[in-house]
């Protein structure tokens, strides 16, 4: 299945672009599902069809779905209480009833990730379009599966499960219950579910579209989003310049805005290429209904994008080092930070951070230095003589 993740600055028209793209794809006979992360029914307002927890058909070959985060949160917490009943009783904790549960921050993100996984595994659709939250929230959402899996592995290491037979004995010696099998089974189930979501996000058939209004503010937010995506080994498949004003027939006030937009468009085309920027016209009103969506002329859904490469260059013969190349367009040298922790590398670029697992060859090396050149972070690694195989 082809998956398109759409995000951008708040108020940039992400939902409208998602709706227009989905409608055009459906009209061409592509079985399309639009998945919305909005609390309010902005997607339904565009189509004139209410959306909610149950997928609804908005047009032939076009389905809309807005998951119910509250219901997912209640079901998950009630199930967790059942699995952790022994530990809760030990702590003297009182159970919570489903009726008194209110979703906590993060519940919507988890509900959307679960829905994304279920939709991607479905054979009922050919195209999945995900209307993500504004860019800062979308970047945190894309990072969530990997980070949660890392937390699970640290808190409940899989290798510790080999000692299950000893837990009753250890419990008697320590005087407190050891983690029950259900706890490890729950962690394993969560890890499998998160891995399925991560596989969708990193699949070659998954692309990211950025939507922004051309102008100084939009340009700054696009630069930040591109950097955040790059740290996740993603790049925008297309940058959609939304609500572009016409060039003629305007008074002086609108002419100034149009000139500002043209300048931003030229800069984007210089940075991302003319094929990488798609302009969507301003209709002079909020788009509503199929006719308005068709008038927007949304970009076509192209084949799967080329994956982002993070190659390790072998320069052992020349300089005695290996160099890991990580594209980070827009990164600023003074806002970059690297920390080596065992087999992991903590990379901070501006407001974004990611903990990377080192490729196997680099785990046997020490960090020798790093440089930022032409929007690419190049990290030098020197082989550790005690760990590096002889003759390599």
Structure description:
- The chain is globular and about 70 Å long.
- The relative contact order is 0.12.
- With 392 residues, it is of the alpha/beta class.
- The longest helix is centred in the middle third of the chain and has 22 residues, at 181-202.
- It has 13 helices and 15 strands.
- The strands form three sheets. An eight-stranded mixed sheet has the order 3-4-2-5-1-6-7-8, sandwiched between helices. Strands 9-10-15-14 form a four-stranded antiparallel sheet. Strands 11-12-13 form a three-stranded antiparallel sheet, covered by helices on one side.
- It folds into two domains: 2-69 and 104-295, P-loop containing nucleotide triphosphate hydrolases (Rossmann fold), CATH 3.40.50.300; 312-383, Immunoglobulin-like (Sandwich), CATH 2.60.40.
Could you give a short description of this structure?
The chain has helices at 14-27, 42-47, 69-83, 85-91, 107-121, 135-155, 167-174, 181-202, 216-231, 252-272, 289-295, 316-319, 360-363, and strands at residues 2-7, 32-36, 56-59, 62-65, 127-131, 206-212, 236-244, 277-281, 312-315, 321-327, 336-341, 344-349, 352-357, 365-373, 376-383.
Q: Could you tell me the radius of gyration in angstroms?
A: 25 Å
**CATH 4th-level superfamily of the largest domain:** P-loop containing nucleotide triphosphate hydrolases
Strand arrangement, major sheet: 3-4-2-5-1-6-7-8
Terminal CA distance:
41 Å
Unreliable segments of 5+ consecutive residues: 169-176
Largest sheet: 8 strands, mixed
Number of strands: 15
Mean pLDDT: 86
CATH class of the largest domain: Alpha Beta
What general form does the structure show?
A: globular
- CATH-defined fold name of the largest domain: Rossmann fold
Total tally of structural domains: 2
Structural class: alpha/beta
Count of DSSP-assigned helices: 13
């Amino acid at each position: 299945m082809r998956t398109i993740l759409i995000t951008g600055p708040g108020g940039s028209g992400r939902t409208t672009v998602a709706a227009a793209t989905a409608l055009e794809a459906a009209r061409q006979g592509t079985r399309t599902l639009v998945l919305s992360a909005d609390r309010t029914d902005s997607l339904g307002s565009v189509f004139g069809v209410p959306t909610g927890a149950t997928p609804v058909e908005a047009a032939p070959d076009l389905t809309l779905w807005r998951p119910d985060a509250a219901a997912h949160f209640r079901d998950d917490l009630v199930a967790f209480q059942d699995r952790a009943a022994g530990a809760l009783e030990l702590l003297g904790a009182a159970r919570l009833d489903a009726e008194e549960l209110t979703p906590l921050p993060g519940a919507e993100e988890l509900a959307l990730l679960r829905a994304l996984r279920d939709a991607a595994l479905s054979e009922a659709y050919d195209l999945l379009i995900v209307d993500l939250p504004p860019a800062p929230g979308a970047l945190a959402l894309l990072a969530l599966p990997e980070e949660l899996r890392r937390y699970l592995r640290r808190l409940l290491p899989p290798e510790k499960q080999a000692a299950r037979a000893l837990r009753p004995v250890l419990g008697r010696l320590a005087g407190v219950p050891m983690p029950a099998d259900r706890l490890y089974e729950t962690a394993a189930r969560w890890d499998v579910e998160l891995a399925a979501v991560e596989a969708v996000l990193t699949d070659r058939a998954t692309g990211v579209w950025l939507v922004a209004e051309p102008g100084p503010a939009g340009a700054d937010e696009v630069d930040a989003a591109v950097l955040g995506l790059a740290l996740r080994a993603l790049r925008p498949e297309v940058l959609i310049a939304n609500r572009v004003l016409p060039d003629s027939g305007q008074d002086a006030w609108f002419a100034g805005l149009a000139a500002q937009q043209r300048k931003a468009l030229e800069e984007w085309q210089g940075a991302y290429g003319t094929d990488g920027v798609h302009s969507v016209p301003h209709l002079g009103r909020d788009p509503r209904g199929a006719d308005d969506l068709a008038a927007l002329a949304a970009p076509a859904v192209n084949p799967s994008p080329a994956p982002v490469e993070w190659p390790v260059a072998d320069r052992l013969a020349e300089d005695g080092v290996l160099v890991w190349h990580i594209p980070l367009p827009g990164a600023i040298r003074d806002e970059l930070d690297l920390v080596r922790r065992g087999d992991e590398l903590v990379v901070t670029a501006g407001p974004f951070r990611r903990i990377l697992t080192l490729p196997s060859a680099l785990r046997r090396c020490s960090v020798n230095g790093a440089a930022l050149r032409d929007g690419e972070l190049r990290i030098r690694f020197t082989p550790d003589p005690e760990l590096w195989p002889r003759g390599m």
